[in-house]
Design a protein that fits this description.
This protein is of the alpha+beta class. The chain contains 16 helices and 14 strands. The N and C termini lie far apart (59 Å). It comes from Mycolicibacterium confluentis.
Length: 420
């Protein structure tokens, strides 16, 4: 890679992006990102145990790279993981046993695979699902009332509501929901001491083996006896008239079953935390529930559950005057883009009426999140049920963020409250 010309302050700020613990410290992370946006918006990060990459911290540059999906590719490095984990994942893919989800793919294969589940997330499907989502929102707000006056909102409410929605959509038995939750925590929490299964890439990738074993049995069942659920659509999906490969089929299940609820959990818990710490905005929203659509978008911007994706340059190119050579990787800092002062007025103010709100939390371009409409509906339903019944709420302890470089948010949110 090119020789960095950054001063020591910028180098230190850039290194924070390659430190999972920085994502568990909002002040540290946002301070580093604000410095990079102002001084080195295309910053070289060379921090072992990760391979070097260019951190892209401006909203406009992130969008431009996402649009240029023929120049900046997801393969072979879609996420920031250690060099050892990169090598192991590459070896597994070459052996035909690795994880290759939509976020790992490029067009045209990405486009063909995406179509398999797309109908399940279109507006008509969402309208049909809304009654069930509203029922579940009421169930979990009732549960919150019943277990009060204190609870850990993340572990007792925010996790379970979207988990139940997405796994019901897949058609999985409720007895298996706990297992899916544990595997999701272990997969996304590989850098977090509370969640990770082990310390080596091999131990952490064993989580994937457990996922695959479960979904291999599910695939066989749904191919033998198809049912009216998303699992059957995936199991029997065709590409050019032929079944998907085992790797693509199993990977499809993994991304839907894990990211399909964990990111929503992060937005829900982050949104409630923002309302608690901004009581004027909580009162404003309670007084005018017509603001809920903009409030939902602000919660999603504020929490930014997906911290980054990586792209690799297919040819020599330039980003904001900085040469990026063919084969070099860029890190799209969505957390930074969502606080870009050139795009968001007073970006560190939580504003339930913010409009426009061009956040990047769902990505942009061909990789825009397949489940974005479902996530928005779930967040809207839960807070539409909760806020009219909420008489009081405050923190009952210290919130804790997960250590991660990919998907994450609050892992504990102790609250004290009164509900009707």
């Amino acid at each position: 890679m090119g020789t960095p010309t950054m001063n020591q302050e910028s180098q230190d700020a850039a290194k924070a992006l390659a430190d999972p613990t920085a994502y568990a410290d909002d002040d540290r992370l946002h301070s580093a990102l604000a410095h990079l946006r102002a001084n080195d918006p295309v910053a070289l990060v060379d921090q072992w145990p990760y391979r070097p990459f260019w951190a892209i911290t401006k909203h406009a540059d992130i969008m431009a790279i996402e649009r240029a999906n023929d120049l900046f590719l997801s393969e072979p490095r879609p996420l920031l993981v250690t060099a050892d984990a990169d090598d192991l994942a590459k070896a597994q893919l070459e052996a035909g046993i690795g994880l290759r989800t939509l976020i790992h793919m490029d067009d045209p294969h990405h486009r063909d695979i995406r179509k398999i589940g797309a109908d399940w997330f279109r507006p008509k499907a969402m309208r049909d699902l809304k009654i069930r989502v509203d029922e579940l929102a009421k169930r979990y707000v009732d549960r919150m009332r019943d277990i009060g006056p204190e609870c850990d909102f993340v572990t007792e409410i925010a996790v379970n509501f979207p988990l139940y929605v997405i796994l019901s959509l897949l058609g999985l038995p409720e007895d298996d929901f706990g297992r899916m939750h544990m595997l999701t925590q272990e997969m996304f929490g590989g850098d977090d001491d509370e969640y990770k299964r082990g310390t080596t890439p091999e131990e952490q990738l064993a989580v994937l083996t457990d996922f695959f074993n479960y979904f291999a049995a599910l695939t066989a069942s749904r191919r033998a006896n198809p049912t009216e659920d998303l699992a059957s659509a995936i199991a029997n999906g065709l590409i050019d008239g032929a079944p998907m490969s085992d790797m693509d089929t199993l990977s499809y299940y993994v991304i839907v079953a894990s990211a399909g609820h964990d990111t929503t959990k992060d937005a829900i818990s982050g949104g409630l935390h923002a309302l608690i710490t901004n009581p004027a905005e909580l009162a404003r929203l309670q007084g005018d529930l017509d603001l809920m659509p903009t409030a939902v978008e602000e919660m999603i911007r504020w929490s930014t559950p997906v911290k980054e994706f990586m792209r690799t340059a297919a040819e020599d190119t330039v980003v904001r005057g900085v040469p990026i050579a063919k084969g070099e990787s860029v890190y799209l800092a969505y957390v930074s883009g969502n606080r870009d002062e050139e795009v968001f007025e007073d970006p560190f103010r939580f504003d339930v009426g913010r409009d426009p709100n061009k956040h990047l939390s769902f990505g942009y371009g061909v990789h825009f999140c397949l489940g974005a409409a479902l996530a928005r509906m779930e967040i809207n339903s839960l807070f539409t049920e909760l806020l009219p019944r909420l008489e009081s709420i405050e923190l009952a302890g210290r919130p804790e963020l997960s250590a991660t470089t990919f998907v994450g948010g609050l892992k504990h949110l102790p609250i004290r409250y009164s509900l009707r």
